[in-house]
Please model this.
Amino acid sequence: MKGCVVSAMYGRHATVKTFFERLKLPVVMSVSTPEDSAFARAYTDKVIELENNPLGRKWNDTIKYAYDLGFDYFVMLGSDDWMTLPTYLFIKEQIKHYDLIGFEDIYFEQEGDCYYWAGYQDQRRGEPGGAGRTITRKGIEKLDFNVWENAGQRGLDGYFWARSGHLNRKVFNLKKEGLYLADIKDGKGLTPLKSIQHIQKL
Model:
C-alpha cells in the first residue's frame, strides 16, 4: 500500500518548514496564497491551491486531490504537526486492517517544552484527535467523498468522527504504543495551548 501525508497550510512558514524537514515523507499540501504556493513547492510537487474558508471544504478537496493521485491511504496532519518514523510505520501497518484509524492522545511542543494530552475526558472520551488520523481509499468511498465538505470552519474533528461511524475503525494510544506525534504551538494556530484542559508538562 502506498500512503501519503495530507495537510493544509495558511502562512506560518517557519512552523511549516519544521513540519516538512522533520517529517521527510510524501506530502500532499493545499495552499491558499501565492506565497504559500511558492513556499510549499520547494518541498513537494503535490500542491493544490484552494480557498482557506471554509476550512472543511479546503480539507475535503485536498483529500480528493490526493485520492486522484492514486495513494492507498491518507495520513492527516495539520501543517503544525509532525510524527516520528516509527509512528508512521505503525500507521502503515495498522491501516491494512481498517478503513480508518486515529490516536486518542497527543504531545504538544511550545518554546522548547513538551506537554502530553491524554485525550478527551468528557462525553467524547475515546474519540481521536485530528492529527494522525488515517483513512483508506475504501473509507473515502464509503463516505461518498464527503469527509468534511459541510463541516464549515470549526469542529472538523468531531464532524469527521460522527460521519464515520459505519466504517471499520480503530483508535490507538500513542503513549501505550511508545509512539510520538506532536502539535507545534507557535501562538498562531486555531487552538492555543492554554485553552487545552488536562495537559501535563513533561
Observations:
- The first helix runs from residue 13 to 23.
- The CA atoms of residues 25 and 153 lie 27 Å apart.
- DSSP finds seven helices and twelve strands in the chain.
